[in-house]
Amino acid sequence: MVHEVETSDEDLAAMASAGDASAFEQIVERYQGRVYRLACRLTENDSDALDVLQDTFLQVFRHLASFRGESQFGTWLYRIATNAALMHRRARARQPAESLEAFLPRFDSSGMHRQTPAELQVVARAEELLDRQLLAERARDAIRRLPELYRVAFVLRDLEDMPTVDVAEVLGVEPATVRQRVHRARLMLRGYLSHLAGGAA
Amino acid sequence: MSDVTCAAGVERLMDYLEDVLPTDVRAALEAHVARCPRCMAFIASYVETPRILRQATAVALPAEQQQALRVFLRAYRHGAGTDI
């Protein structure tokens, strides 16, 4: 019995680069779901996400020959997809989204949390208190309202679940910078979810 | 070193969770949290936040869009004869 070993991304990239159409299609198949999900998390709506999806694979196809294997193929592809999503957003004239700053944690003059433990914990009940569809819409809206630097770092690190060092590589910044941006995003989003769940309670 | 405030603790939370804090800072933070119900509650909700949002935004690419992408890319590869 022959066990088929899955061809590595890097091998597929080399084959596709040499003109193997089926290798390219395998790359698309392997990554299309992840790229689409990432694009949805970084753009305004589904139609923008589909544009980014197409654009990403066009660029992957065009630039396959320049992939040298210095980074992992997945990281390289995520960088292309992230940039495609950002370019797409910037190309659009958007009304500025309302800031999430108001949802940052609050402390009294001695540096103690202003809220009670019960109030601080209400986030954990967001899923039971809120309708699934509503939560999905609000989640997307909240992520869209983050400052761009925070949003991208948060989406890659926390939603795509990439290690901090990989996010740093995609964004071309230090891991400490990624941590700082993700932290700010988490604080705002935590406060926002808390507000949502508190309002629904 | 033992008088960490909630505010100071929150500022270091990400670094704490990624285990990049110096040992003494880490110990001071843990000592504070151990006797601060507010920080315990805050940390629980801080950790939950990404998970809730990850699930809420986990969309799948519809099959017809997969097909559309395939058609689009094939047309591009075969089209114009310039960029094969």
What is this structure, in a nutshell?
The complex is a heterodimer of chains A (201) and B (84). Chain A has 201 residues and is an all-alpha fold.
Protein architecture, described:
The complex is a heterodimer of chains A (201) and B (84). By secondary structure, chain A is mostly helical. In chain A, 67% of the residues lie in helices and 0% in strands. Chain A has helices spanning 9-17, 21-42, 46-63, 73-91, 117-120, 126-129, 132-144, 148-159, 164-171, 175-200. The radius of gyration of chain A is 20 Å and the shape is elongated. Chain A starts with 8 loop residues before the first helix and ends with a helix. The mean pLDDT of chain A is 91. Chain B has 84 residues and is mainly α. Chain B has five helices and no strands. In chain B, 70% of the residues lie in helices and 0% in strands. The termini of chain B are far apart. The chains are: A mainly alpha (201), B mainly alpha (84). The interface between A and B is large, with 59 and 43 residues.
What order do the helices and strands come in, and which of them pair?
The complex is a heterodimer of chains A (201) and B (84).
Chain A: H1 9-17, H2 21-42, H3 46-63, H4 73-91, H5 117-120, H6 126-129, H7 132-144, H8 148-159, H9 164-171, H10 175-200
Helix pairs in contact in A: 1-2, 2-3, 2-4, 3-4, 4-9, 8-10, 9-10
Chain B: H1 6-11, H2 13-17, H3 23-34, H4 37-56, H5 63-78
